[in-house]
Amino acid sequence: MTDSLCLLPAPRQLIRTEGVYPLADQRLIWLDVPNPAAWRGAVARWQKRLQALLGLNWEITASGAAPDQIGVEVRLATHARHAEAYELAITPAGIYLSAADEAGGFYGLCTLTQILEQAGRQLPCLRISDWPDFPARGVMLDISRDKVPTLETVCALVDRLAGWKINQFQLYTEHTFAYRRHPEVWAEASPFTGQEILELDAFCRERHVELVPNQNSFGHMTRWLKHPRYQALAETLDEIATPWWPNSPRIPAGGFSLCPLDPGSLALVTGLYDELLPHFSSRLFNIGCDEAVDVGLGRSQSECAQRGQGRVYLDFVLSLYRDVRARGRRLQFWGESILHHPELIPDLPRDLIALEWGYEANHPFDAHGAQFAAAGIPFYVCPGTSSWCSIAGRTDNALGNLRSAAENGLKHGAVGYLITDWGDGGHWQVLPVSYLGYAAGAAYAWAFEANRSLDLARAVGIHALHDVTGRAGEALYALGNVYRAIGFEPDNASALWQLIQQTQTRVREYEALLQPEVLSRTMEAIDAAGQLLASAEMSGPEADLIRRELDQTAQLLRHAVRLAQFMLGTGERRGPELDRELQEIITVHEQLWLARNRPGGLKDSVARFEVARQVYRA
Questions:
Q1: What is the helix (H) or strand (E) element at residue 306, kind and residue range?
Q2: Where in the chain are the domains?
Q3: Partner of 3 at 20 to 30 A CA spacing, among 224, 475, 493, 512?
Q4: What CATH topology corresponds to 13-130?
Q5: How far apart are alpha carbons 557 and 550 in whole angstroms?
Q6: Are 385 and 420 in contact (CB under 8 A)?
Q7: Which CB contacts under 8 angstroms, 24+ apart, belong to 39-45?
C-alpha cells in the first residue's frame, strides 16, 4: 500500500514495515502532552475527518487508558532537533505520533489524514520522519486585481493549504480593505472588512497558519490616486512607460506611485496602518513597495538627480520601516527595487525581510539570494504559480520557477518561501488553475529533495480534485502547458491571453509566427486536455464547480485560437458568430466568478473582453 500512497508533501523519510493496522470503532485518541488543551484543536480536526471519511467515532482523552483501547497516541518529543518536526508510526498495535511542538503534531495528523483518505480502514504499517526545510512557507493571494474572494472561499483555501503544511498566508491588498476613513477608494470593490479579517485570523491560527497583513504602500496606488482627494500625493499624473513588459501598453495617466518627498504620502500610508494592523495577530507586515517605477519622473526628479533614485526610494521605505518597527512589527518588502541599486543593500536594517521575487523559470534566484545573504539581510524567495495573464497557467514555467526558488533559497539561507498568485489583467484564471502551483510550492518548501520528482499531476488529482482516475490532475497539467503549443513564450504571460486582451497589437506582432499549422496544433492540445477532463471522475462538494471552471478555461483557450484565425483570415467563423461565442463565455465567466467571489470588480474584469469584441464588430 505504501508504494501506491501519494502524500503531499512527500515526507522526508518513509519506511514501510510489516503488517496493517485495522481501524475499529470506539477507540481513544490519547493526548499524552504537557498542555492537552493547546493540542485539542488539531486533534479534533483529525477526529472529525475520521468520522466523516470512515464513520468511526474516537474520543479524545488526556488521561490515558488500557493499550487495547487506544487508537492514536500523541506525544511531545523531548529531544527534537527541528521545529515543526514529527515522527509517525503505524504498527499492528496502533498509531503513534511524536511531535516537536503543536505545529508538528498538526502536520503529523495532516499526513495521517492523507493516509486515511487513500487506505481506508486498513492502514499500512510504516514509519515517517519529517520536518521542514523552510521555517516560513507561505501563499500570497492577489485580491486587488478585481477579484475579491468570499470569506468562505478563502477559509476553504487556507484549510487546504494548511493540510499541505503551508504556515503563512497573505492577501495582497491595494484598495480592498474597508478603510473607514477612505470609503470612496473601495466603494465598488466588495472589500474585506475588519470583522472578516478578525474571523480569518482566528481561523488561520487554529490551523497553525500566520495571517500576515499586506498593504502596498508606494507604487501600485492607482486605485487611490485616481480619486481627486489623493491626486496631490502622486509622483506624477502623466502617462508612463511600462518597464517590466517591453512593447506592452503604457501605464495610463492618473498616477501610479506616491511622491516619496511629500509628507502627506507618509501620513496617508501610516493612517492606513492605524486601521489595518489591529485586526492581525501576526507581528509581520508586508508593505509592498515594488515597482515604484515613476519615482524620479515627476515631483522627485530634482531630488533623484542630486541624491540618486535608489537613495530617494530607500529613504521612503526606511521611513515606513521606522513606523512599522515602532508598532512592534517586522517589515517585509519586495526587494527588486533595491537590487537595482546593490550598493544600497548594506544600508538595509538587519531586522526587516526582503522578498526576492521573480516568476520566470530562469529568474536569477541564485545571484539575488547571494547578494542578500552576503549583506546579512534576511530574505524570502518568492516564486509564483504562473496562473495570471495565462488563462490556464504555464505549467512548465511554474514548476521550473518554483523549483529554482527552493533550490537557491536553501543554498543561500532564505528564511522563507512565499508562493505568489497574482491576478493581473482582470483575474481571468479560475482558482483551480493555481492548485498545481500551490501544491508544488508547498511540497518544495517543506522538503525539497524528497519532493523534487513528485508526480504533481497525480498529487493534485488526489488532494485537490479528488479524482480516483488521476485524469483530472493530468487535464489540469495539460491545460497549463497549452501555452507552449503556440511555439513562443512571452515573459509573464501566455500568447493566447495576450491575443484576447491586446488583440490588434499582438496579432500584428505575432503574425509571422501564427501559421495555420501552429494554431491547429494548439487547438489539438486544448482538445486533448479537454478529453482527459471529460473522462475524469471527480468527487466532493466542489466537483461540479471545478469541472465547469476547467471547461470554461478550455473554451476560452479555444476562443483565443479562433480569434487569431479570424484576424489572420484563416478561420471558418465570421465576426458575428465569434462575437456571440464570446458573449456566451462572458456569461459563464460572470456565473463562475460569483460562485467563489464577491461582485465588486466583476464589471472591470468583464470590460477587458471588449477589445476582442470590437474586432468582431468592426
A1: helix 301-307
A2: 13-130, 136-202+212-265+286-317+333-454, 472-617
A3: 475
A4: Chitobiase; domain 2 (3.30.379)
A5: 11
A6: yes
A7: 39/74, 39/102, 39/105, 41/206, 42/102, 42/105, 42/106, 42/109, 42/208, 43/74, 43/105, 43/109, 45/106, 45/109, 45/206, 45/207
Query: What are the DSSP E strand ranges found in 188-299?
Result: 210-212, 284-286
For domain 136-202+212-265+286-317+333-454, the question of CATH label 3.40.50.300 is answered with: no
Is there a shared CATH topology between the 13-130 domain and the 136-202+212-265+286-317+333-454 domain? no
pTM, 2 dp: 0.97
512-555 pLDDT tens trace: 889 999 999 999 999 999 999 999 999 999 999 999 999 999 99
Residue 346: CB atoms within 10 Å = 11
CA 418 to chain centre: 8
The Cα 71–Cα 205 span in angstroms is 27
Residues with Cβ within 8 Å of residue 542, at least 6 apart in sequence: none
Do residues 598 and 142 lie in contact, with contact meaning Cβ atoms separated by under 8 Å? no
Whether residue 106 contacts residue 207, with contact meaning beta carbons closer than 8 Å, is answered with: yes
Contacts for 310 with CB less than 8 Å, ≥ 6 apart: 337, 338, 340, 341, 343, 344
Count of positions (residues) in the chain: 618
Task: Report CA-CA distances (Å) from 31 to 75, 105, 112, 127, 611.
Answer: 7, 10, 16, 20, 61
On the question of pLDDT at 480 being above 60, the answer is yes
Q: Over 70: is that where the pLDDT of 158 sits? A: yes
Q: What single letter denotes the amino acid at residue 76?
A: L
How many angstroms separate the CA atoms of 546 and 533, rounded? 10
Q: Pairing between strand 122-130 and 13-22?
A: antiparallel
- In tens, the pLDDT along 228-261 reads 999 999 999 999 887 665 555 678 889 999 999 9
- Do residues 185 and 215 lie in contact, with contact meaning Cβ atoms separated by under 8 Å? no
Answer for the pair 578, 119: CB distance below 8 angstroms, yes or no: no
* Phi, psi torsion values for 101, nearest 5 degrees: -165, -175
Q: What is the CA radius of gyration of the chain?
A: 25
